[in-house]
Design brief:
Layout (H helix, E strand, L loop, with lengths): L9 E6 L5 E6 L11 E2 L2 H11 L9 H6 L1 E11 L2 E6 L12 E4 L8 H20 L6 H17 L6 H9 L11 H14 L5 H8 L7 H41 L9
Antiparallel strand pairs: 1-2, 1-5, 2-3, 4-5, 4-6
Helix pairs in contact: 1-5
């Protein structure tokens, strides 16, 4: 049975004010409504691939991701912020050229893109429950993620596919740190716990230990010593100059003619 998207051969996309790409026209206008239809650009595709990589240890299925999108490559620059894209049958993960990814949302409730959202949410929740000491419930996480999206719908603003996916892949429960910061903080605290406590006498002893001084301290002492030597040399030069001046004055006194007294 042929896929419903088989007649979608090309599309025209435009750059929006939000700097995201949106579909303006398709080769199958009957089934593809372009109103609020977003498409992921190559830069965003690469970012999503990086985000899903840690989920591989928690059941992430690459095939589910691939099935949720239709790949396109750039066919022609139409100018005025519009580009014509041509459909290709290439993997988003293994393609040599930069590809756009259109979510397959013909069936918004049970289609491949809807399956991807559920799959990513489950993987993310599983990872968070493994990294942190709490048990997040899948339905609660989904409700929290959907809350912001519903607010956008109420405002009449379409949610871009990239924003929808990153909301799941970057999701963190309130009051918890990011995946990268949390282990780093624990490691830092663990290093402090391993350090022995020192009393004042031991600290003072360590401060005066020459073998523990930094290179900067040694250079500072060396500079100070050289400065003192320069000051001593300047003082010696001043003394020598003073002695020369005294000798000069004596020579001038000796050179003065002696006045003879008048004869009586």
């Amino acid at each position: 049975m042929a896929k419903l998207t088989s007649t979608l051969d090309w599309c025209v996309v435009r750059i929006g004010e939000d700097h995201n790409w949106w579909v303006a026209e398709t080769s199958d206008p009957v089934r593809w409504d372009v109103d609020g239809l977003s498409i992921i650009d190559p830069r965003q595709v690469a970012h999503l691939i990086d985000l899903v990589d840690p989920l591989r240890d928690y059941g992430f299925d690459q095939d589910v991701f691939e099935a949720a999108f239709i790949s396109f490559r750039i066919d022609k620059d139409l100018g005025a912020g519009k580009v014509r894209l041509k459909r290709v049958k290439e993997s988003l993960f293994d393609a040599d050229e930069k590809l756009f990814a259109l979510p397959d949302i013909l069936d918004e409730e049970n289609g491949p893109y809807a399956d991807l959202l559920d799959h990513l949410t489950r993987c993310r929740v599983k990872m968070l429950n493994d990294l942190f000491n709490f048990e997040a419930k899948l339905d609660e996480v989904e409700d929290e993620i959907r809350e912001d999206q519903n607010a956008h719908f109420i405002e009449g603003r379409a949610v871009h596919t990239f924003e929808e996916l990153t909301a799941i892949l970057d999701y963190m429960p309130a009051g918890h740190e990011t995946d990268e910061e949390h282990p780093a903080k624990e490691d830092a605290e663990g290093e402090d716990d391993d350090l022995p406590e020192l009393d004042e006498a031991e600290e003072e002893k360590l401060k005066n230990d020459e073998s523990l001084k930094w290179d900067e301290d040694e250079e500072g002492e060396k500079d100070e010593k050289e400065k003192d030597e320069d000051d001593d040399e300047d003082e010696d030069d001043d003394d020598d100059k003073k002695d020369d001046d005294d000798e000069k004055e004596e020579d001038e006194e000796d050179a003065k003619p002696v006045k003879k007294g008048k004869k009586k």
